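[recover] target loaded
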């Protein structure tokens, strides 16, 4: 409730900036989500459609940043990371209703298991094996994997899409797919060999389920990347790779360092500030002023 009120106040403060951003045609608006509820997601999409945005695929993004086609419309590229069950339950009906495409970056082990390793880690956060779940994003992948294997099993309902749901997503004609590694590994915490195996595994499993080998675009899990991981994805022939850096996609941008702004399940006013990159930097500035450390 407090957050909603704050969003409405900030929306008024940022109103001019939002209007100015919403008129831009010189760059691609790049937005992504994770586990979406239907109502806030549909409100955001309806707003974008009513404001004449044209939803595009990664192929079109590629063509636009290379300058093969003119940037002459309000283009938006919509993507989702991981493969959450809500992608089928809540996102797909909205894509179908508005007849728009979206990219789903799938971590294939999640589809097999029904959960992600970080969900299992969070469920067992009282474990003596680590102080905070965040630590596990920062250690070498082999170490992380050993810790996860020692934890009690994941409990609770499935949180990821199953194979049948992925197939239906593909059959709808509105979903396209990207590689997000098999076990949602941090690209920069793997050796080149480990990362290569992880990417190939995801490609193979996705090819078997959807017929799409997910070799055009990659999304760095958690946005982590380094020189080695970029080399691996280039060697594998990917054309694009997405980060979680805030910003627009411009003509001439590095195709392996695409910016994206995250939206969530907040109210429309909050999500408009999120997609135009106003929300997070504002709160980071406040935190800096207050001397609060950012734990992410
Ligand atoms: Zn992810």
């Amino acid at each position: 409730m407090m957050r909603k009120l704050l969003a409405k106040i900030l929306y008024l403060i940022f109103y001019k900036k939002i209007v100015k951003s919403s008129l831009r045609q010189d760059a691609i608006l790049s937005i992504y989500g994770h586990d979406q509820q239907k109502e806030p997601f549909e409100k955001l999409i309806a707003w974008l459609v009513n404001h004449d945005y044209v939803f595009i695929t990664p192929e079109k993004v590629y063509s636009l940043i290379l300058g093969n086609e003119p940037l002459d419309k309000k283009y938006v590229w919509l993507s989702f990371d991981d493969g959450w069950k809500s992608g089928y339950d809540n996102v797909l009906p909205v894509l179908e209703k508005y007849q728009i495409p979206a990219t789903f970056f799938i971590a294939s082990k999640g589809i097999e298991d029904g959960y992600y390793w970080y969900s299992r880690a969070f469920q067992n956060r009282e474990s003596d094996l680590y102080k905070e779940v965040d630590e596990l994003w920062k250690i070498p992948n082999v170490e992380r994997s050993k810790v996860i294997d020692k934890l009690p099993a994941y409990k609770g309902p499935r949180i990821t899409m199953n194979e049948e749901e992925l197939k239906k997503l593909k059959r709808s004609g509105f979903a396209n797919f990207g590689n997000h590694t098999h076990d949602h590994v941090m690209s920069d915490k793997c050796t080149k060999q480990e990362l290569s195996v992880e990417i190939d595994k995801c490609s193979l499993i996705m090819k078997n389920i959807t017929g799409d080998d997910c070799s055009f675009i990659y999304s760095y899990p958690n946005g982590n990347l380094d020189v080695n991981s970029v080399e691996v994805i280039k060697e594998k022939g990917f054309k694009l790779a997405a980060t979680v850096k805030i910003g627009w996609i411009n003509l001439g941008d590095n195709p392996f360092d695409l910016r994206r702004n995250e939206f969530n399940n907040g109210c429309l006013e909050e999500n408009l500030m999120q997609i135009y990159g106003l929300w997070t930097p504002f709160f980071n500035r406040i935190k800096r002023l207050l001397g609060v450390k950012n734990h992410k």
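[recover] notes: The pocket of zinc ion is lined by residues 81-82, 180, 184, 221 (CB under 6 Å).
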